[in-house]
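Chain particulars:
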Amino acid sequence: MGGPLEARTPSYARVSLAIITSQNEANLLGNIHGGEIVKLADTTAGAVAQRHSAGPAVTAALDEMAFLAPVHVGDIVRTFGQVNWAGTSSMEIGVRVEAQPWNEPSAETLHVASAYFVFVAIDEDGRPREVPPLGTEGPDDVRRLREAEIRRAHRLARKREIDEGRDV
């Protein structure tokens, strides 16, 4: 195999997607189902992971999804995703979700959800493959990297504790 992969910055793989929500995604209250927002965020994160790793990548975990405000039928929903952390074969992708009424261009855009996904890059046989390291471009990237490392440490500690409890 070749030498070490060259680092890529978060801006290299950054992705933004947008949709206009419809009645098809709504619950009985006229709000968009949370699962629809998760799906859009996962799609965004998948595109980011594919770009950063230059190949297929699959969702390994949804580390956290926080819903901050409802999304309504007719809202324009935008997602913004970027790599926050990269390991040997896995990456944490952060996704911010914003909404704005379709017919009110001057209405304030609301931050409605945030999510952190873990993706693993895979080869043609479905086995993990190496991903480029993550370089940072500024203080926000450094903060995101530090916070991602904290989430990763918590995931690993939780897994260890659960596994140890099952060994008893």
Q: What stands out?
A: The chain has one domain: 10-166. The chain has three helices and five strands. Residues 57 and 121 are 4 Å apart (CA to CA).
